[in-house]
Write a structure and sequence with these properties.
The chain is α/β, with parallel strands linked by helices. The chain contains eleven helices and 17 strands. The two termini are 19 Å apart. Its cofactor is Zn(2+).
């Protein structure tokens, strides 16, 4: 088998190294995909940094959750099939595919319910096994592939995580026609959520962020209301837009110690808070308010394979579109992560190995 280049995390908080490694050979149900585009995601940043900021300043290490290094990160993978094991059916060499990366053990209750993304013993691509920051990626089974047809691989890549996460969050928000949905954060996930909410709900969409450029982009994609939380009280901004009542649902794509309390206080009676972001921290809850106002607090983490298939169909029909603002070569991987960390990327960035 030939050799390949891959950007690897050998040690957390140290620059990734582009290394020459053996290209894996697929067998059985496995498929080898030539990576055309790998999305650069905040989850990759958390891996690189070694964890998440937890409550009271406690650092939650990814290694405590079973992550092992060295590792080739990258869970948003789109490309074309180059080799297949002898048990693969329904696919052919050269076919363009998007990879569903949230692989489970197949035996836990979540997996049996079709929710491998919530597996008790996850084996996610680019997290617990090598992913797409390389020229090729080995997919454990053809059952995790979604056919792309002629759809652009750069636009498709981020659907596997940011798109799928946003899709799941919007579905969990379950807003009805005429209700107000607030989206906290106009990054890659937030901008995708605006489009998805526009495509599958009849809700009024409000977006909260500190960056006017990102808010402008949200408006272009269909947001009805933009609230700059750096220039005023975002809770009051949402209350003003809802006749003082608050929103039926809030999706917090930042979900840190500053945004979460605000998100909670934006809800009207019977409101639902969908917590998505992994930016860390903690918040103190006014416990009587939850039963008195019948609030629902829930989390959303990526999504099911069937939802990804549905999302790709929406993309193919032109209902949603990934905002790919930056493209990097494999040897520019550290610059890509630094730009994402510093908030310079509007929409999504991809690596083209």
């Amino acid at each position: 088998m030939w050799r390949m280049k891959a950007a690897r995390i050998n040690k957390t908080k140290e620059p990734l190294k582009v290394e020459d490694i053996a290209t894996p050979k697929p067998s059985g149900e496995q498929v080898l995909v030539k990576v055309d585009s790998a999305g650069v995601c905040h989850s990759d940043l958390h891996l690189w940094e070694g964890g998440y900021a937890g409550p009271q300043g406690v650092f939650m290490k990814v290694e405590d959750r079973g992550v092992k290094f060295p590792l080739t990160p990258g869970h948003e993978v789109a490309g074309s099939i180059v080799e297949m094991g002898d048990k693969v059916t329904g696919y052919s060499k050269g076919e363009k595919v998007l990879v569903y990366p949230w692989i489970g053990d197949g035996v836990c209750p979540a997996c049996k319910a079709g929710e491998e993304n919530l597996c008790d013993s996850p084996r996610s691509l680019g997290v617990y096994q090598d992913g797409g920051y390389g020229e090729y990626a080995l997919v454990p089974s053809y059952k995790y592939l979604v056919k792309l047809g002629d759809y652009d691989t750069a636009a498709a890549a981020s659907l596997a995580c940011s798109g799928l996460t946003a899709f799941t969050a919007v579905k969990k928000a379950a807003v009805k026609d005429g209700e107000t949905l607030v989206i906290i954060g106009a990054g890659g996930l937030g901008l995708m959520a605006v489009q998805i909410a526009k495509a599958i709900t009849g809700a009024k969409i409000a977006v909260v962020d500190i960056d006017d450029k990102k808010l402008d982009e949200a408006k272009k994609l269909g947001a009805d209301i933009a609230v700059n939380s750096g220039k005023g009280d975002p809770v009051q901004g949402v209350k003003d837009a809802t006749k003082g009542l608050g929103a039926e649902a809030v999706i917090d794509f930042v979900n840190n110690a500053k945004t979460a309390p605000n998100s909670f206080n934006m809800l009207r009676k019977r409101g639902k808070l969908v917590m998505v972001g992994l930016f860390g921290g903690s918040m103190e809850l006014n416990l009587p308010l939850i039963p008195l106002r019948a609030f629902t607090l829930t989390g959303a983490y990526t999504g099911k394979y069937s939802d990804l298939v549905e999302l790709v169909e929406l993309a193919k029909k032109g209902k949603i579109q990934s905002v790919v603002s930056r493209r990097f070569k494999l040897d520019e991987v550290n610059a890509a992560l630094e730009e994402l960390k510093s908030g310079k990327i509007i929409g999504r960035a991809v690596i083209n190995p």
